[in-house]
Design goal:
Elements (H helix, E strand, L loop, with lengths): L1 H17 L8 E5 L14 H16 L8 H7 L14 H11 L18 E3 L2 E3 L1 H8 L5 E5 L9 E3 L10 E4 L2 H13 L4 E4 L4 E9 L5 E6 L11 E5 H7 L2 E5 H5 L1
Parallel strand pairs: 4-6
Antiparallel strand pairs: 1-8, 2-3, 4-11, 5-6, 7-8, 7-11, 8-9, 9-10
Length: about 260
């Protein structure tokens, strides 16, 4: 009898593990332009995908269109002696490395298994990766934000986390301010990169569930075979509880 009970419990546990999460219904209030969802595979470079996705959405808002290569930045990480073996980092890390190594288009380098291109060809013009990077993300264009109750607001602080291995500094603001500025930026169609301690995604919209509760629409980098085809939904409540950092343009923050 004990053996039968154990087998039954084991089968129920297995069934529970296989069960796909049920999809809730969301109504979009805002859904900003975005490039196709990419898949980071087994890498831990979600921060690269998220920050590049935010830059891409920012350009779509301006009437431009760029599709950037996460593989190129993964390749450049090989040159960084301080980079952790996990390849983890933050959106601010990507912004720093972009100004150091440049960037190429997605079609020019879709996999880190290939050599990095030395030139970028676009719209009949030729650029170095660094020239191209400056055309899509000017130095100092983005501001990195955090909310730490234990540090002075209005000052720049260093987030003491292993992912911040470049020791970047973030403008510290109250969580209410961070939430309001983020929602306003998204409603005005700006690209925003969001990070928790465990993951990073681009914010591309705002939605409500059946009960009227607000969510940020997130562009994830886990492919398109999950319930929302590459999108995820982060409640405003969870944003308050889990946000480590947010990156957006200075224009978006100051509007």
């Amino acid at each position: 009898m004990r053996l039968f009970t154990c087998l039954l419990l084991f089968s129920l546990l297995l069934g529970g593990c296989r069960k796909e999460p049920s999809a809730k219904h969301f109504t979009h209030e805002v859904l900003n332009g975005m490039t196709p969802v990419k898949d980071q595979g087994r890498s831990q470079t979600c921060w690269v995908y998220a920050m590049l996705a935010a830059i891409e959405t920012e350009h779509i808002m301006r009437g431009d269109s760029v599709n950037l290569s996460p593989a190129y930045m993964e390749k450049m990480l090989d040159r960084e002696s301080a980079a952790p073996s996990s390849r983890r980092g933050m959106g601010a890390t990507l912004l720093r490395l972009l100004q150091k190594y440049g960037m190429v288009g997605y079609e020019a380098m879709r996999s880190a298994d290939y050599p990095a291109p030395r030139m970028v060809f676009m719209y009949g013009a030729e650029y170095t990766p660094l020239e191209f990077a400056h055309s899509v993300c000017a130095p100092g264009e983005y501001v990195a934000l955090t909310s730490d109750d234990d540090a002075p607001y209005g000052e720049e602080v260093c987030i003491d986390q292993p992912d911040n291995w470049l020791r970047d500094r973030f403008l510290n603001v109250p969580m209410d301010t961070l939430l309001v500025r983020t929602e306003r930026a998204v409603r005005r169609h700006h690209g925003v990169c969001w990070e928790s301690k465990g993951h990073a995604m681009a914010i591309v919209g705002i939605a409500r569930d059946e009960r009227g509760r607000k969510y940020f629409v997130m562009k994830n980098s886990w492919g398109t075979d999950r319930p929302y085809k590459g999108l995820e939904y982060l409640s405003f409540r969870k944003f308050r509880a889990t946000t480590l950092a947010v990156e957006m343009t200075r224009e978006a923050y100051q509007q």
